[in-house]
TrEMBL record:
ATP binds at residues 11, 59, 87, 93, 104, 114. This is Nucleoside diphosphate kinase. Its cofactor is Mg(2+). It comes from Cellvibrio polysaccharolyticus. GO terms for molecular function: ATP binding; metal ion binding; nucleoside diphosphate kinase activity. GO terms for biological process: CTP biosynthetic process; GTP biosynthetic process; UTP biosynthetic process. The gene is ndk.
Length: 142
């Protein structure tokens, strides 16, 4: 087990449907602590840079439109195995395939509107946290 930090985004669908509180509570009840948090509206440039690995995919334009369609809540979660743990809490990318009780099953609707993002590896977690937060904005906890 390792103490890790991971980047989580509550996407525009879940923010617009007033699920911020339930999603944050889900993380906290699962033992992950929020050590940085902000609500922002992503610009096209920010969204592109964040999802650069997907440039050229057929769904990329839709993803850009969705991610810039309203405010998002960007947060750093901290805890034991936080990266994998958050992926488990989110469930599969397609909400229709996500395990019952996971965030995407509860709050997502379709693959292109799936409520939450979570870093998928230690390398992407480090990149994604630095993409949104200065190092001194991430509180040292746990
Ligand atoms: P994840 O968010 O589970 O890490 P991913 O990195 O493969 O999934 O894709 C990033 C986002 O892009 C995903 O949350 C939703 C969107 N997306 C992925 N595959 C898609 C598809 N086939 N159709 C529409 N949107 C898709
Ligand atoms: Mg991904």
């Amino acid at each position: 087990m390792a103490l890790e930090q991971t980047l989580s985004i509550i996407k525009p669908d879940a923010v617009g449907e007033n699920h911020i509180g339930e999603i944050v509570a889900h993380f906290e009840q699962a033992g992950l602590s929020i050590v940085a948090m902000k609500m922002i509206r992503l610009s096209r440039e920010q969204a592109e840079g964040f999802y650069a690995e997907h440039i050229g995919r057929p769904f990329f334009e839709g993803l850009m439109n969705f991610m810039t369609s309203g405010p998002v809540v960007v947060q750093v979660l901290s805890g034991e195995n936080a990266i994998q743990r958050n992926r488990e809490l989110m469930g599969a990318t397609d909400p229709a395939k996500a395990e019952p009780g996971t965030l995407r099953a509860r709050f997502g609707s379709i693959v292109s509107a799936n409520a939450v993002h979570g870093s998928d590896s230690p390398v992407s977690a480090a990149r994604e946290i630095a993409y949104f937060f200065d190092q001194d904005a991430v509180l040292l906890r746990n």
